[in-house]
Design brief:
mainly alpha; 6 helices
Length: 267
């Protein structure tokens, strides 16, 4: 057990004297080992305590975050439900409004179709009368002369309707467009009403009442991707056809009145 490379006294020797002096190294090693064990025990206990505290803080923070998220989710869900309910109410109101407009438009369209049929029958009757008068010799000559005189009036009336059609197309485009201001549509409507009230031909055709009816009820717009302005509107096109037939009818009535006046003078 002796190490000859070490100086004497560095090796742990048996107790040669029997007084216990040989166990001093055992005690010398025992004290640091006990200190190390105590340090490790204290360090392990303190670490476990800190770990437990950190875990408790983490659990509390996690619970708080979960409760906060759940509360925000419930608030957002409630707000979404309230918004959905309000939108549903507005949608139902708009549906009823559209149905009312649709019924009014169908009624107006039916009336205009019936009026167009009546005017067409009257025009056919007048056309038949025109052919009869054309075959009546001198009366035919008078008829042709009267018809020629009324063509100028018909041309001015046709020009008026063309201007009216262009203005109505512009008005309906302003009504359907989300970019054009509302004042633009109101300005066009005002100019049309002034034209209808001051132009003699417009007064003869009674255009003002029809224009007000269009402004009140014609809310038809084509698809929002539509680029053709003439696809907007529905009631306005029925009125334009009606006014064209009315121009034809007024022309023949003027011719008839002229012929009747000539016959009265001859008598």
């Amino acid at each position: 057990m002796n190490n000859l490379n070490d100086p004497p006294g560095w090796n742990i020797q048996p107790d040669q004297r029997g007084d216990g002096g040989g166990n001093k190294w055992n005690y010398a090693l025992l004290v640091p080992m006990l200190g190390l064990a105590a340090f490790r025990w204290i360090w392990t206990r303190e670490s476990q305590r800190e770990i437990g505290e950190a875990k408790e803080r983490h659990d509390e923070a996690l619970k708080s975050a979960a409760a906060n998220l759940e509360m925000k989710y419930k608030d957002a869900l409630g707000e979404s439900r309230r918004s959905a309910a309000l939108l549903e109410v507005e949608l139902e109101k708009e549906r009823h409004r559209v149905q009312g407009y649709r019924r009014a438009l169908v009624s107006q369209s039916q009336q205009l179709l019936e009026e167009r049929g009546r005017l067409r029958r009257e025009r056919e009757g007048l056309e038949a009368e025109r052919r009869r008068l054309a075959r009546a010799g001198a009366a035919g000559v008078q008829y042709r002369a009267a018809l020629e005189r009324e063509r100028e009036w018909q041309g001015r009336a046709a020009l008026l309707l063309e201007e009216l059609e262009a203005a109505l197309v512009e008005r309906q485009d302003a009504y359907c467009s989300v970019l054009l201001p509302r004042d633009r549509r109101l300005e066009v409507e005002k100019n049309l009403l002034v034209k209808a009230a001051t132009d003699p031909i417009a007064a003869e055709l009674q255009l003002e009442a029809g224009l007000r009816d269009i402004f009140r009820h014609d809310r038809h717009c084509a698809d929002w991707l539509n680029t053709d302005k003439r696809r907007n509107g529905r009631l306005m096109w029925l009125y334009l056809k009606y006014w064209e037939l009315q121009v034809q009818l007024q022309k023949f009535k003027k011719v008839e009145d002229s012929l009747l006046g000539s016959q009265s003078n001859l008598e």
